[in-house]
Amino acid sequence: MATKHEQILQHILSLEIGHKISVRQVAKTLDVSEGTAYRAIKEAENQGIVSTIERVGTIRIERKKKENFERLTFAEVIKIVDGQVLGGRKGLHKSLNKFVIGAMQLDAMMRYTEAGSLLIVGNRVKAHELALNEGAAVLITGGFDTNGEIKQLADEKELPIMSTSYDTFTVAAMINRAIYDQLIKKEIVFIGDIYTPYDESLFLYTKDKLERWYELNKQSTHTRYPVVDAKERVVGMITSKDVIGKDMTMPVEKIMTKHPIAAQEKTSLAYVAHMMVWEGIEVVPVVDHSNKLKGVVSRQDVLKALQQIQRQPQTGETIDDIVSSNLLPSEEDDTIFHAQVTPQMTNQLGTLSNGVFTALITEASSRILRHYKKGDLVVENLTVYYLKPVQIDSQLTIRPNILEAGRIYAKMDVEVYNGKKMVGKGLLMAQLIDK
């Protein structure tokens, strides 16, 4: 039987897109406390099926599917620009395909304004009307309002007309940044993208006898399984080490490892990879918000995904991407690297930022370990014990030197030069992720 929390989520999913939701109304409809209703609505917001907008309330929106291009809804635009809705609230769940800046003559403006787009314009009432009639939403900049007829038209067309105090070009920059941020997030691999669902994997119940482990082991050849209670919530893990020398009739709950590390679908691949190395874990159970088992992710799954990421281009560039693309091996010696200090790599003073310096050290160390087929690294400790200011456009030479490298551990000494002058030195200690 579904919990009250799950019942509320199912109820919200059954509502029409654009429907307004309130804590009080949900609590009354499903006969639950307002606290329970509030927590479920917040979970629905985390899942992307509702959106809460200041001065509007919480509305049911369409859950986004993975696409080549991640679009923004008009509800998200309102949050980005700290705006208010003047009319057309029922259309806030819709997505914009593109935005048009209305800094031109009306006829020229309308050639670019089409259904599904967003016109960003100032106090030009005729432009507001033409855009709505074309099927486009409107964002009025400079804190201006519009007249009652336009608001009524927006309600009829179910197209939002919104207002913000920012100027037109600031708004365009803010929306551009939000789209760019989403492109970067889209490239991040989450555990939800790679885990094996539990109906395809194997698990044990706490009341099972140990002989059940041997049955599963014979059937699957796996040696590690999640242990769940009667409600299929993860409460432990059992491995071959746990069962050695134990009586076959013992209950699993007596010998399992309690309180195992678990991941949720929105946990990043990088975080789980780090935990697996750090804790020496081979399998991590994947759970939902109530700790109910959804599947498992293995070290092999993580390694395959990490290898796949390295082969795929990034759509949006983070600082780490910029560092990686600027770090090139020397023509004379491919264990020495060169990098140019670009404007994105500097701080407000125009010198190389500390964060970028550590990224350069980490990337160079990672490449040198891969060069010697030692595997990928997870940084355990990084100490920078010498650093001088480095000017923008400087040409750097990074010389990583392996002090120690075993099967699971490495220690690196890294020197950074600007010309012949040393400008930085660091000591990096890391654990290795290898096959």
TrEMBL record:
Parts of the chain that traverse the membrane: none
Cited SUPFAM superfamilies: CBS-domain pair, HprK N-terminal domain-like, Thioesterase/thiol ester dehydrase-isomerase, Winged helix' DNA-binding domain
Domain CBS positions: 256-314
Keyword set, alphabetical order: CBS domain
Keyword Lyase: no
Keyword presence, Cell inner membrane: no
Alphabetical list of CDD domains matching this protein: CBS_pair_DRTGG_assoc, hot_dog
Pfam families: 4HBT (PF03061), CBS (PF00571), DRTGG (PF07085)
Highest taxon listed in the record's lineage: Bacteria
Record-given protein name: Predicted transcriptional regulator containing CBS domains
